[in-house]
Write a structure and sequence with these properties.
With 644 residues, the protein is an all-alpha fold. Helices cover 75% and strands 0% of the residues. It has helices at residues 2-20, 28-34, 40-73, 86-100, 102-107, 109-128, 134-158, 160-163, 166-170, 180-198, 200-206, 210-215, 220-242, 248-258, 264-289, 297-319, 336-356, 369-400, 412-426, 435-454, 461-486, 490-498, 506-525, 527-533, 537-542, 547-569, 575-587, 591-615, 624-642. Helix 1 packs parallel to helix 15 (264-289) and helix 4 packs across helix 6. It is found in: Cell membrane.
Length: 644
């Protein structure tokens, strides 16, 4: 009862403060006295501020209940609509509809968001497997989120005019100009909330385990289907009205459980209340920080939710000691010289096409000024950065004993993007060329967080992977918010965030060559230690290897290589995930040949992506990051499905 009273008291206090915030200034006492009579205050409250408050209460409650349902269904304390990619899928479908089918979006915004949410959920359930292992579910959601986020960002870049109005909404905002949003979402959320309450008792039984639930006579597939439907519909409803707001669905159910609430009926009821409190509180805080300006509420939930997610990741890893997994690969490797010759031939062929074709005209005269000064350095930069990202992927997968690890999953890429965008927001007059400095700082912060949180636990692979997922989620949310705040610099920022070799010159080639020269030696030196680490920590320690030292140096070198790549071309993901997988199926598990072949494949992959993006809709450019995501993700999802 105390928890109920406290929550309701907080919600009432925050609601009164919320109703007094805005450009039209009046006090709480004026609000209480004058809201009942016709006039300025009543008009403002009824037409603008009350709809915003009501939608905040409904959306916060809906996201929290959806998170509670998803955490039980996936047996994953890190599950929510944002971490499982449901929000990202819904947002992607909204952006696509805004560009290509605006009338459909205008008439059926909920159905559009629902289609994206359903697709993301189906992908997670299909690829994560029946066991719903927490780390596997979290990684699957992370990869799906990365895919949708890269495609969304690229579409926003290519169709800036059509999607300009979506930037604020895409960061999550409670702004309501009338009661339309409330009248649409309110009945939906109430009905779905009642549906989840009806499912509370079956979910209590389901939480005992599917086998136990079946033996007690429960129709497990039906219960799970209804629960998934309720969670997805709740998420889609909120996204269609207020945009993709993260972290509420993650934090509220955990806070409720920490307050001693047990049983799904009480958890759902309390989650709705505390989710509302948290979202209204975040909106109040955002408007206190910048009075008179619209700060996306997603910014505030990310600010609080990021550290909370880090804590949950750390806590989850402590309760799941199993972290190593099969890396995949062939037991009958092809001879290294044969593999290198074949890949080299492919590289020569792709480089020749990339240098000779501009999308409409072929020219083998590579010394022409327009080719030599623009196309040649661009292609060479793409190749060298592709090599760097693949090398980083090999090191990070080796040190974490996880085939799904790379700079994207560890949060280095997203924090690099957040750091670059923060630099642009704090110093709006700074040239875009200085964005890499912010990226280096952001990536370094990600590395420091991983090192400090994992040091005492000997850098257990599961802990590092989960911390990386948390950092990545926080960085992605922060980046979206900074894009909104950057305003006039949005176009240049989106080019960089989408990962593009557009406009690269000979200075970039020289910088990339210097970074490779500096970091290739340490990477090669670490290969023998990583070979030993593949036998497991105990065996490696028995053979005299300092496991902790190896993990630290491999993390530092891997992050340094990927940060250098990100600083040069922006946030390109998937190369470091896909190239090592392909290489492992060609040359096996030993890290030196794996490093060589992965590097060549990474260069080939990024040059191919850059070439395809340059000619597909010439003279427009599709960012390399999007093309890589489209090429690499189907293969990666196939591997994820095949992994034991």
């Amino acid at each position: 009862m105390f928890v109920w009273i406290s929550g309701l008291f907080l919600l009432v206090v925050l609601s009164f403060i919320h109703l007094t915030q805005g450009q039209a200034d009046y006090t709480v006492s004026q609000l209480v006295k004058e809201v009942w009579v016709e006039g300025r205050i009543q008009d403002i409250v009824l037409s603008l501020r009350l709809p915003r408050l009501v939608i905040g209460i409904l959306a916060g409650g809906a996201l929290a209940v959806a998170g509670a349902v998803l955490q039980t269904l996936t047996n994953n304390p890190l599950a929510s609509a944002s971490t499982l990619g449901i929000n990202a899928g819904a947002y992607f479908f909204v952006v696509v509809s805004m560009i290509f089918f605006p009338s459909v979006l205008g008439n059926f915004p909920f159905l559009v968001a629902l289609a994206g949410a359903v697709l993301s959920s189906v992908l997670v359930v299909t690829l994560a497997g029946k066991q719903m292992e927490p780390v596997r579910v979290a990684l699957t959601g992370m990869i799906i989120s990365l895919l949708f986020a890269s495609m969304t960002g690229s579409l926003q870049l290519l169709f800036e005019n059509q999607t300009n109005g979506l930037f604020l909404w895409g960061s999550g905002t409670l702004v309501q100009l009338n009661w339309n949003g409330v009248s649409f979402a309110g009945p939906m959320i109430v009905v779905l909330f009642l549906m989840t309450l009806a499912l509370a008792k079956p979910m209590d039984i389901l939480s005992l385990g599917e086998d136990v639930a079946s033996s007690l006579g429960q129709n497990v597939p039906v219960v799970k289907l209804l629960a998934w439907a309720a969670a997805i519909l709740l998420a889609a409803t909120t996204v269609s009205v207020v945009g993709p707001i993260g972290f509420i669905g993650l934090m509220a159910p955990h806070i409720v459980r920490m307050l001693g609430i047990r049983g799904h009926l009480h958890i759902f009821l309390q989650s709705f209340l505390w989710g509302s409190v948290m979202l209204i509180g975040a909106d109040v805080l955002g408007r206190l920080i910048q009075p008179g300006q619209e700060v996306p509420v997603g910014a505030m939930t990310a600010l609080v939710g990021g550290p909370w997610l880090l804590y949950l990741a750390w806590k989850t890893a402590k309760t799941h000691t199993k972290g190593d997994r099969q890396m995949g690969g062939t037991l009958k490797p092809v001879k290294l010289p044969i593999v290198i010759v074949i890949i080299a031939a492919l590289i020569v062929a792709v480089l020749t096409m990339a240098l000779s074709f501009n999308g409409s005209v072929w020219s083998m005269d590579w010394m022409k000024p327009v080719i030599w000064n623009f196309r040649v350095p661009r292609v060479l930069t793409a190749f060298i950065v592709g090599v760097m990202l693949a090398l980083a992927g090999v090191l990070l997968q080796g040190v974490l004993r996880n085939p799904l690890a790379d700079a994207s999953v560890l949060g280095v890429t997203s924090m690099g993007g957040a750091g670059a965008m923060l630099l642009l927001v704090v110093f709006p007059a700074i040239p875009v060329q200085y964005m890499p400095l912010g990226a280096v700082v952001g990536a370094s912060i990600a590395l420091v967080i991983i090192l400090t949180t994992s040091w005492k636990n000997n850098f257990q692979p599961m802990l590092v992977a989960l911390m990386g997922i948390a950092i990545s989620a926080f960085g992605s949310a922060a980046t979206q918010v900074f894009v909104v705040k950057a305003k006039l610099a949005v176009a240049a920022a989106l080019v960089w965030l989408s990962g593009s070799t557009y406009g690269k010159g000979w200075d970039d080639v020289q910088l990339a060559l210097v970074m490779v020269a500096l970091l290739l030696g340490p990477a090669i030196y670490l290969t023998r230690s990583l070979d030993t680490l593949t036998f497991g920590d105990d065996v490696a320690a028995g053979l005299g290897l300092s496991v902790k030292s190896t993990r630290v140096w491999a993390l530092v070198v891997g992050v340094a290589i990927s940060t250098a790549g990100v600083a040069i071309v922006g946030t390109i993901g998937f190369v470091g995930l896909v190239a090592p997988h392909i290489a492992r199926r060609l040359v096996g598990f030993r890290h030196l040949p794996l490093l060589v072949v992965s590097g060549l494949l990474g260069g080939l992959l990024l040059v191919t992506a850059d070439f395809v993006g340059r000619i597909l809709i010439a003279p427009k450019d599709i960012p390399s990051g999007l093309v890589v995501a489209l090429i690499g993700t189907p293969y990666l999802l196939y591997l994820l499905r095949k992994m034991k």
